[in-house]
Amino acid sequence: MTKKLTYGMVGGGKGSQIGTIHRKALNLHGKVELVAGSFSRNFKNTLITGRELKLDEKRLYNNYVEMAEKESKRNDKIDFVVIVTPNNSHYDIAKSFLENGINVMCEKPLTVTLNQALELQKLANKNNLLFAVSYAYTGYSMIRYARELVKSGKIGEVRFVNSQYISEWMAKVPFIGKVPRHEWRSDPDISGLSNCVADIGVHVENLISYVTNLKIHSLCARMDKFIEKDRLDDNASILVNYDNNSKGIYWTSQITIGHENNLNFGIYGTKGSIEWSQERANYLRLSTIDEPFKIISRGNDKVSDHIKDEYVAPGGHQEGYVEAFARIYDKFVDAIYKRKQGEILTPSDIDFPTVEDGVQGMRFVEKCLESSNQGGVWVNF
Amino acid sequence: MTKKLTYGMVGGGKGSQIGTIHRKALNLHGKVELVAGSFSRNFKNTLITGRELKLDEKRLYNNYVEMAEKESKRNDKIDFVVIVTPNNSHYDIAKSFLENGINVMCEKPLTVTLNQALELQKLANKNNLLFAVSYAYTGYSMIRYARELVKSGKIGEVRFVNSQYISEWMAKVPFIGKVPRHEWRSDPDISGLSNCVADIGVHVENLISYVTNLKIHSLCARMDKFIEKDRLDDNASILVNYDNNSKGIYWTSQITIGHENNLNFGIYGTKGSIEWSQERANYLRLSTIDEPFKIISRGNDKVSDHIKDEYVAPGGHQEGYVEAFARIYDKFVDAIYKRKQGEILTPSDIDFPTVEDGVQGMRFVEKCLESSNQGGVWVNF
Amino acid sequence: MTKKLTYGMVGGGKGSQIGTIHRKALNLHGKVELVAGSFSRNFKNTLITGRELKLDEKRLYNNYVEMAEKESKRNDKIDFVVIVTPNNSHYDIAKSFLENGINVMCEKPLTVTLNQALELQKLANKNNLLFAVSYAYTGYSMIRYARELVKSGKIGEVRFVNSQYISEWMAKVPFIGKVPRHEWRSDPDISGLSNCVADIGVHVENLISYVTNLKIHSLCARMDKFIEKDRLDDNASILVNYDNNSKGIYWTSQITIGHENNLNFGIYGTKGSIEWSQERANYLRLSTIDEPFKIISRGNDKVSDHIKDEYVAPGGHQEGYVEAFARIYDKFVDAIYKRKQGEILTPSDIDFPTVEDGVQGMRFVEKCLESSNQGGVWVNF
Amino acid sequence: MTKKLTYGMVGGGKGSQIGTIHRKALNLHGKVELVAGSFSRNFKNTLITGRELKLDEKRLYNNYVEMAEKESKRNDKIDFVVIVTPNNSHYDIAKSFLENGINVMCEKPLTVTLNQALELQKLANKNNLLFAVSYAYTGYSMIRYARELVKSGKIGEVRFVNSQYISEWMAKVPFIGKVPRHEWRSDPDISGLSNCVADIGVHVENLISYVTNLKIHSLCARMDKFIEKDRLDDNASILVNYDNNSKGIYWTSQITIGHENNLNFGIYGTKGSIEWSQERANYLRLSTIDEPFKIISRGNDKVSDHIKDEYVAPGGHQEGYVEAFARIYDKFVDAIYKRKQGEILTPSDIDFPTVEDGVQGMRFVEKCLESSNQGGVWVNF
Ligand SMILES: NC(=O)c1ccc[n+]([C@@H]2O[C@H](COP(=O)([O-])OP(=O)(O)OC[C@H]3O[C@@H](n4cnc5c(N)ncnc54)[C@H](O)[C@@H]3O)[C@@H](O)[C@H]2O)c1
Ligand SMILES: NC(=O)c1ccc[n+]([C@@H]2O[C@H](COP(=O)([O-])OP(=O)(O)OC[C@H]3O[C@@H](n4cnc5c(N)ncnc54)[C@H](O)[C@@H]3O)[C@@H](O)[C@H]2O)c1
Ligand SMILES: NC(=O)c1ccc[n+]([C@@H]2O[C@H](COP(=O)([O-])OP(=O)(O)OC[C@H]3O[C@@H](n4cnc5c(N)ncnc54)[C@H](O)[C@@H]3O)[C@@H](O)[C@H]2O)c1
Ligand SMILES: NC(=O)c1ccc[n+]([C@@H]2O[C@H](COP(=O)([O-])OP(=O)(O)OC[C@H]3O[C@@H](n4cnc5c(N)ncnc54)[C@H](O)[C@@H]3O)[C@@H](O)[C@H]2O)c1
């Protein structure tokens, strides 16, 4: 009976948002066990959270520094750490664990500056550690199939991309009669120099990069602050030019009342197009020049077998966000396991978003700011 | 550090369909651990499956009889067993575990005859054991909210119900170039006297009963066998009269090419209607007499807090089949845990489909057969 | 410069519902002119309506008997009459015009009894007159293409049909604060022995017959009267067996709050299926065994050229109800014109619903009543 | 018996695209009659077309100059002319008729330069003639209701607009095996300096202006030419700033395979949003801060009575493109009629797109070119 891999978590204390989803996503495939944590700045919260999760109290730490150091010295040290704290702390926390020889999964945006991100990238490489970034949407099976379709030439050369991540929560907050939990998102000291682009715009950048493999050549961004009390952008329109003369529009918003988390795209090539929306995550719309429009569902025979092999729910039933998230984790965990077994990883083992993707995200944020701050001029990427 | 509850599984061996989904659903909330199994009639398969799942080989059993007996004698015996074998074996297996004092989660259809189902019900009650049946669709948050809406009178008195579970796999099987794995479904020796009604028709019966609380008074069924080589029904149309003079149409099919697992309903009352489809499981369509049609999504403020508290993914992201399934299991596990702590269960603790629901399903199957075999006459329920 | 054909109308006076749509539909292609009318039982209304329509007052008649007789004696007599009065008067009015040698377009249900309908059929044939019935939905281009697809064998042999015409207006009437204009619909003296089946159920019967060419062999109907003050059926569920062993479910309702005029069908064959809904009238969903689901739109290249030649709006724009209606009229008008030119009509000229379809509709109503009145037994067609 | 108004047409000869739709739209309400035409540069085509339409051959003219002059001298001269020729001829033709005292309906883009458009505006005003431009989409009932909703404050202050007119025909043309009929569209000598923006981009500009009443303050446009053989833009992305600090993205394309004529918008305000798409032209999606998302259909009680009074098909049935077009014409015809009766027009009589809208369209085209030609800089409007 081989033992499961183990992990620790920084952030994700009682009352926080995303940490619990990481834990459920990690539970799903039953391959890893949470054994250590510093869930909050407040140790009491760490204790409460740890007890609810039935952890050994000895592995509940006062802070991440202590955690990184003490865990690194154990024989049964955690195989990786999950960082789910607000943006401004990602850099220091990730650095601590990398320096102590522990693999990292970190939330996006990776850091608050591009430089920090580049440093983490260097450090991870130097220490030969695996470093994933939780761009979870790339875990949907239909996203993976879309990537294959584009690569296969099914829609020809990509000409144009239209992609959006539009949501409403910032516009609704003052009206729902509850103190908004996430005030930090519009606080530059914690969030960094951008709210909307850094929070959800980077998902658009990563998703399109994943599906199309297009490289941004230059962009023109207009970042808006519509809500009075906001201190950072809550909406952004970005014209993008790619290296190969194809073009795109990205739009990201937290003020589009009527959309909860509408992440979507249309990719238009010389021979056809692919469209996807998170609200119908189990389906692709595929159109080609000479055929009727098609709806490809997860259950469809055309979907590649290796993608089907990764299904959690049988074709025809719906898979959701947690299944996508779990798929990303599954690849990450498999890679750690393989390396732990002494095997050498091949490129195809790195089938999850990495620190490089995190770096690209931060470059995207900085370039958008550079363009927007000058009134929406074109800047090279 | 309290220990997790433990469970065993009968069926679900390598190559089988539904067992793995039970395991993922049970993983999701991280409250239970699989520790024992008789995954197949073939002990080699049980061994392979058990090893992959990293179980202690001492708890991999030759057959369910041995498993029930040996587990019942352990101090750390499993808290419940999950039965995911073909229909004809449910009765004997469930009986063994009930007789050995072990709680049961059994797949639907509960048995192959109504009498068997009634016996299991009696036995579970006599031995004071919890007995759940995996009607997983009642675990969707929007189904739970639909039930509340109906109860609250939002749509008035229900007049009419239209519900379908239509699918295509039986019609596609011969064409997809693979030996159909589930031949047993049209083999009366294994499946029982019905295929389509017993396999998916019972989900319609259970779902509508759950959401509306309507009791069937009489029905008129036409069961069809469209596919030549089929030996049992692959399609059925059922007119239903309820106790309160409301009426319904149920339609269940395995030959509707174009539908993967389209479970859906419309419930029409004196003041409004509610509609839902599994393909858009995170949304309800609510129409009332004097307002525009509304789309209620999981993220919406109107959804009751206690339903929201059970969300896995944040409102706005999609939850899928496994999340619904996990919710059913979560309620079942909580009830077992509570009782294990010596507490007394209240009716609200039994928030999962039980052996009573399983019995109703078998009654439904038998009544449909009774009607259809006489050429589609009306029979009392 | 050839003259346009001319027509007269009975019914359709100021304040009535459907007459004005007939006039718009007849206007669309600009081939005919309204020149005579008896728009109401009340001659004052006929005068007002006639003046608004800028008719010559000499051709505004006290009643349809006078109109039929006087028009028949004119050199420039109307080429056809349109009958848009309530159901119970269709028979007498149609008879008058047929006896006076004038072609007829009559609203559905054709009459109030099957016998009346058969008489009209005989009379039209005897007098060699064209007699159309305004089953307007068969005029949608996508319905015409669906018929071709079925005929071509694209979906194989039809196994099952599910079709609905569900609406809400009877359930909403008492709540919208206006006296319902159409009380006559639930008055047996005017409507005949059925309201819902005769009013909209016949559209389902006709539409499915048109698209599939299936003949009903037997049926089992449950007709309901849910609304207290109703005197006739407002909802009906009908199981249908066709001659070739295929089966169907028809559901027609006036109490399904949330549906305005949701006429739809799914037709499931051995190789595929076709689905259509009036709310997306410009699209067909086509599924076949070995391909992804397809959405065929009016603009699609696969649609037959002769169907495209009849488009009013260019492919890609939407055509609505009036365009469908106009297409039916266009075929009827062309046939009258051709015959007037002394040419002999071929079967393909009769590309509109005829008195035979009207007869089938009445047979359907009577058979549903026969079945339902005996408690929902099977009756042969 | 008052006589109908009469009109003439320039362009719209046999084989042309849009002229026939104007004629059907004008037929629908039965208020006007086509009596004169110069349908083509080729008089033979004019004769053929005129005969098919059963016109008096004396009023079929060699060219529009002759037509304008001769018609203006008749006692029964046409009440208005419809101009449906390619873009570069609009100016001269419109000028001729205005100079001869005849009201004009002209296709968009109004002219090929802003200056020409301004001249026409001046001339129409000077000669006190009515001049409409066929921005037909503003004729949809749901567009009219959307405008009312915005005006009423239902969605608060508008913050952001996203609007698209995306289509595929330019990308499909070389593949559909037919000579593309509309080569002139990418010929600068006929089309003007823009193809895509001038052809369909102006519809976006006009529609948003109509619904929101927002004035463009500045814009940044990127116009693309993706198809090799194209000589003008076939795609454009336009960032828009409005006077009141609200912002927008317009995207117009002829290369988005998979979209036939997908004109759509989302308008996001401080309290809610409205969304509409031509493919579901009979519905609005209305979202507000504190309520579930709503689908407003034409049949809904909330729609204003004066909008309902203009329905062609009863609520619940679909109205299409021709009905929208006919509504625009109906307003235009009513205004001409009223003035002809000697009455004075009030602003509310001018309920159709006018030469002012045409001028705005040309300004939009020129500003987009100005921005794009400099590499996508911001230019004031
Ligand atoms: N991938 C996604 O789709 C997604 C979604 C939501 C959030 N996020 C990202 O996840 C991160 C967390 O967001 P959230 O919404 O969960 O925030 P949150 O405020 O809800 O939770 C943050 C948690 O971190 C803890 N914390 C803060 N500083 C800490 C420290 N130094 N040591 C230990 N714990 C500490 C807090 O006590 C809290 O429990 C952010 O970077 C956010 O951008 C990503
Ligand atoms: N709730 C649902 O939506 C749903 C979905 C699918 C299947 N099911 C039900 O689940 C059950 C299993 O279906 P399946 O599709 O997974 O079937 P399957 O044939 O794929 O798997 C059955 C498994 O049971 C094992 N088995 C058979 N007899 C056994 C025995 N005596 N002891 C131990 N193992 C034994 C087989 O070796 C196999 O591994 C059926 O009753 C079916 O109706 C329910
Ligand atoms: N095809 C369809 O989809 C459709 C839709 C609606 C109605 N209909 C049918 O159309 C018919 C009319 O329905 P409606 O809703 O317009 O009814 P309505 O009550 O609105 O109008 C009926 C009109 O007929 C006139 N009329 C009655 N008796 C007359 C007579 N003897 N002579 C002259 N005029 C007379 C009335 O004055 C009135 O103007 C019905 O048979 C109905 O079933 C069909
Ligand atoms: N409102 C819309 O949605 C819409 C849609 C399509 C076209 N249009 C506009 O309508 C106009 C016509 O487009 P189309 O697609 O119908 O073009 P088309 O090429 O199909 O037809 C143009 C017609 O004009 C005739 N013509 C050309 N010059 C003439 C002249 N001097 N005198 C008389 N007739 C002449 C041609 O013979 C032909 O019959 C264009 O300006 C176009 O932009 C608008």
UniProtKB/TrEMBL annotation, chains A, B, C, D:
InterPro entries: Gfo/Idh/MocA-like_OxRdtase_N, Gfo/Idh/MocA_oxidoreduct, GFO_IDH_MocA-like_dom, NAD(P)-bd_dom_sf. SUPFAM superfamilies: Glyceraldehyde-3-phosphate dehydrogenase-like, C-terminal domain, NAD(P)-binding Rossmann-fold domains. Residues 6-134 form the Gfo/Idh/MocA-like oxidoreductase N-terminal domain. It comes from the Bacteria. Residues 143-275 form the GFO/IDH/MocA-like oxidoreductase domain. Gene3D superfamilies: Dihydrodipicolinate Reductase, domain 2, NAD(P)-binding Rossmann-like Domain. GO terms for molecular function: nucleotide binding. This is Putative dehydrogenase. It comes from Defluviitoga tunisiensis.
